[in-house]
Design brief:
By secondary structure, the chain is α/β, with parallel strands linked by helices. The chain has two domains: 319 residues, Glycosidases (TIM Barrel), CATH 3.20.20; 71 residues, no CATH class. It contains eleven helices and 14 strands. The longest helix has 21 residues. The protein is elongated. The structure holds alpha-D-glucopyranose. The site of alpha-D-glucopyranose has 7 residues, from loops.
Length: 447
């Protein structure tokens, strides 16, 4: 029997006698099992925080950058290193962060333990380019993980494969080759460093729920290196969820790695039904804190984004770029608050839901549950809403929130339709829940 790689991962090595003993250290939980909580959650927070946050997007007179500032503004490494002296985040309150994650209705958070600049938010035995070499000394990973767990929020580590600081990372930035010659740099030594750091992150902070890799696109990171890293992680943390950016160059057909896809700043048009996915999206235009970026999406737009991802069967990882002092930009905090108010009423229609059963043009988005169909309206309809293809009559239609009036489903000339009161119950996205007594069906007419 030859099994495609995914299948034996999904089946668990121990279940396949022919493979037993080959890699005894690899006891992998079936994918569906380790993905269960993640699928249920639907909503998490991305946290982009590092030395770049101190610069707030500005280098000399140039204000165009954010977390890529060292590369984009071509900051010499010695100068960037000196930012360590300014890392003293006196406003960092991990419990306040965790509280904001929780109040927003999110179930997990993913922190940049190390971004492309190479600076580590934990005291790493492998380098002094870390929090231990700053005036603050504070282990950000430890403090945040503790605060999140107290609130039963799952913990995720973002970790960049690309590293603009480590002497053995290759390739060099093209603008830097003269000032930081490649010399006897050896990429294999960087791999050892990467492995040792991932080990630290997996072993020093209790059970980690997600590893979220990035910066995998340069020529040196290969599929084989991704396979080796994934195996190493799964041997240490069989239940962990890993993103797809662990994969590298030269991937053979079907050689997918990780558990979920990572569309960035977009929601795939029809989701990706063959694979779990999570859209990561910013509240303004940047991941890291940038004082000049005022292009904030409205709370309504952010709720629409959450509803759209859920309606297509994906998760949303919504970003916050804390300031250098450890506080959240006030605009982010306000938006989290508004989303949280909305989630307090609507979380039951997002969490534990899956993709819409309606195909074709409908004037709403929807999510699916065993005995519920949740219909979301960005614009409140003025007349009866057709429910094309809905074959099961609901036992009740429930308008979520403090609206006045009732929702009803009635049989119209062309099938079931929804009748709504004149006033929307919220200025964000309104939701009507159709409750069924058992299985329910939508059969989309052909053509
Ligand atoms: C990109 C960027 C990075 C950001 C990430 C989030 O890969 O390089 O700055 O962290 O996307 O998905």
């Amino acid at each position: 029997m030859t099994l495609p790689r995914r299948d034996f991962v999904a089946a668990g090595m121990a279940a396949i006698p022919a493979l037993r003993g080959l890699t005894p250290q690899l006891t992998v939980a079936p994918s569906a099992d380790r993905m269960a909580w993640w699928r249920e959650a639907r909503f998490g927070m991305f946290l982009h925080w590092g030395l770049y946050s101190i610069l707030a997007g500005k280098w000399q007179d140039d204000e165009r950058w954010a977390e890529w500032i060292r590369h984009n503004a071509k900051i010499p490494i010695q100068e960037y290193d000196r930012l360590r002296e300014r890392w003293n985040p006196t406003e960092f309150d991990p419990d306040a962060w965790a509280a904001m994650v929780q109040r927003a209705g999110m179930q997990y958070a993913v922190l940049t333990t190390k971004h492309h600049d190479g600076f580590c938010l934990w005291p790493s035995a492998q380098t002094d380019f870390d929090v231990a070499s700053t005036p603050s000394h504070r282990d950000i990973c430890r403090d945040l993980a503790t605060a999140l767990r107290k609130r039963k929020i799952r913990v995720g580590w973002y970790h960049s494969i690309m590293d603009w600081h480590h002497p053995d990372y290759l390739p060099r930035r093209d603008w830097e080759v003269a000032t930081r010659p490649v010399g006897d740099a050896k990429f294999s030594r960087y791999i050892d460093y990467l492995h040792a750091q991932v080990d630290e992150l997996l072993t020093g902070y209790g059970p980690i729920d997600i590893l979220w890799f990035d910066g995998q696109w340069e020529s040196t990171w290969t599929h084989e290196l991704g396979v080796a890293l994934e195996q190493r992680i799964r041997a240490r943390a069989p239940q962990i969820v890993i993103n797809d950016r662990i994969n590298g160059k030269g991937t053979p057909p079907g050689g997918r790695l990780g558990d979920f896809g990572t569309p960035e700043q977009e929601i795939p048009a029809t989701g990706t039904p063959e694979r779990d996915w999570e859209s990561c999206i910013t509240m303004n235009d940047n991941w890291g804190y940038k004082a000049q970026d005022t292009k904030w999406k409205s709370p309504k737009r952010l709720v629409e984004i959450l509803v759209e991802t859920a309606s297509k069967g994906g998760n949303l990882l919504l970003n916050v770029g804390p300031k250098g002092d450890g506080s959240f930009p006030v605009e982010s905090a306000e938006r989290l608050e508004a989303i949280g108010e909305w989630m307090a009423v609507h979380h039951g229609a997002i969490r534990g839901s899956w993709a819409s059963r309606f195909a074709g043009p409908v004037p709403f988005r929807s999510t699916t549950q065993a005995r519920r169909c949740n219909l979301f309206f960005s614009e409140w309809p003025t007349g009866p809403v057709p429910l094309p293809g809905l074959r099961t009559a609901p036992v009740a239609a429930q308008l979520l929130g403090a609206g006045s009036g009732r929702a009803r489903v009635v049989a119209g000339a062309k099938g079931l339709e929804l009748h709504l009161p004149p006033e929307a119950p919220t200025s964000l996205v309104a939701c009507v829940v159709l409750h069924f007594s058992g299985e329910w069906q939508v059969i989309t007419p052909r053509g």
